[in-house]
């Protein structure tokens, strides 16, 4: 091998390649096997203040990462050579644009080669316009915190650092913090009263303090008992609408809501399906329908919802838990993410309530200016939820897997199911029972199937994976069953024992994923939510019953980080995973076999690290690859069982700050307050600057500039390239809804990410909205006319349209 002639950065060392390395074969073996040190490489390159970086090849993964690097400054230019898959430009336009930008950045272009195939002619150009624009450089306000967050949101290179466990820490009593505004300022409250009497005591106390209070009780049907007392049926969406319509009409929309329907008498453990469904109605669905009703009334004033529950969180370890109520925590996380005007908080009470003192504490919590989002009261102590990092260095030799062990995977033909099956086959030549609902071709038909279907066919890929498992020495039993069906799951266990003689471990991975299974709260239907609850709530209850009394080496539930962070469009998914986490806490109190719920970060089964647009889009650069997931799985099984482990590839606290405490939204609000000269200059973008060309574009751009803190946004600038992300997107759509009085979903921003495209969507929406209004006014006009006049008018209209 010869020494390199052109200097380059090594992905192995993250610095300039040395001749001794480039000519050493073992260096190239390390190049194949070791971590890619891309961030360090960028650090080296970005030391030069005017470096131009060009990504050569398909995708824009590397340029995205380079743009997000904390050391990238406005002087660095980052370009891609091919358009993003979702960009609407032609490839040639994109390439030429990049070439132009390279030239603008003083890169020497070999024009003679560029024009080789062309015959150029001279054309006169217009003279240079002097635009009299100021280019004075003002000092920028870039807080340390912003760069800390950016830094923390990198994927940690060592998998051992990806693990966390939930914990609670004693929080200072609120009265010591002296932040709470006693309820002395008159405001409007709405209290959903509970069967334990906390709600009615709160109503009394608030009324004594001169507050305006609306009481809502659960009953069979809607009734307005007096001006301030309503009853509604918790499972009737229409009742919430009627309630809100009535309050809106009477100008009585509340500013604080206390939702106590998840406070129930502690009457023993009842984790059966019927009781669980009842709890969803009073908790999850009640909050969902209530929020939807606020959305329908277009309420945009600030609103606080305090969701009070009891025995949902395991704080002291002594509680008799009610996991069936835990789904209420899903909306508590997602409502504030999807509705920038609503802040939602959860306060969980223990088995004992402290009478009047508790009422004062709750009122103080709900009037506190800096609330904790997930809080618990146990006795008179106040606890705040935290997550502690734990390093999992577990070695493969300490594994709980056994050679030739029998392992059942629900959702076993899914992406993660098959990935873990492969590891089990490879490491211990396992006997695998893979369970799914969809019928799979019989084994004898596999060859024919592969012949008749192309490589991309999902079944073909699964068949090839199954064949590979068997080649690795595994025995595979495929069973058709719905995990939520008790008889079918009993049948699965019996078949397993009949065929393999035992069952040593279970992985519960059955789930309904894919875009149709998710939706923003405003559009979320019961059918959509029930899809999530089917395998993770009902399915888990069935699984627990079917496995009762069976000693296993492990039982891992595939939960999701959405249970901790929520996520746009994830209200039901987050709730279903929260149920799984809570059920394991309760299960482990009374069972010898300790189960573990693993809240996985997103997995990525496609190449590259580009952000996938759409609902549930997450930072794909943080996603787990199948190889990394397998390693994390191996570490989990090489460690003593923990009840709940969170796997977050990036710093979890930084993500909680962003998603639960919504700090990036606060940053956006801060940037709005920054004076114009201190805003960030427009970054180097792929698109040339084009100013707004109509009023709608101007409004869109004004809102973007304020929220992004960018001085000048052009009509063709991409929101996400300007540093926008989903949470800011929520604020953008909410403000646009207010500005244009029309419905606009976050999806619209993903599909039309430039001000020009978004303005077109808005213009179309306004035209559609105007159409029925125009029609209604025409009809009203027609009603006023005599038959003869109406005939004449219609004839004139027809003549005009012909
Ligand atoms: N993928 C990720 O990024 C990610 C991240 C965090 C957590 N997780 C969790 O990891 C698990 C697996 O995810 P995945 O990406 O592998 O999902 P996937 O590819 O969609 O596979 C899920 C499998 O579950 C089966 N299934 C669904 N409902 C079922 C039911 N009622 N009974 C039996 N089988 C059922 C599905 O097959 P049928 O429809 O044929 O039954 C499917 O094969 C899920 O619990 C998910 O929430 C995934």
Describe the structure.
The chain is α/β, with parallel strands linked by helices. The chain has four domains: 19-120 and 139-152, no CATH class; 167-389, Rossmann fold; 391-649, Rossmann fold (3-Layer(aba) Sandwich); 663-769, Non-ribosomal Peptide Synthetase Peptidyl Carrier Protein, Chain A. Helix content is 42%, strand content 14%. It has 28 helices and 19 strands. It has a 17-stranded mixed beta sheet, with helices on both faces. It has a two-stranded parallel sheet with strand order 1-2. Helix 14 links the parallel strand 13 (406-410) and strand 14 (431-436). The N and C termini lie far apart (80 Å). Residues 410-411, 413-417, 435-438, 482-484, 509-513, 534-535, 539, 558, 560, 600, 602-603 line the site of NADP nicotinamide-adenine-dinucleotide phosphate.
Name the CATH class of the largest domain. Answer: Alpha Beta
Poorly predicted runs are: 140-148, 611-617
Count of runs of 4 or more consecutive helical residues: 28
Helix content: 40-55%
| Number of domain modules | 4
The CATH topology name of the largest domain reads Rossmann fold
How would you describe the shape? globular
Question: Looking at the chains present, what oligomeric state does this protein adopt?
Answer: single chain
CATH superfamily of the largest domain: NAD(P)-binding Rossmann-like Domain
Strand content: 5-15%
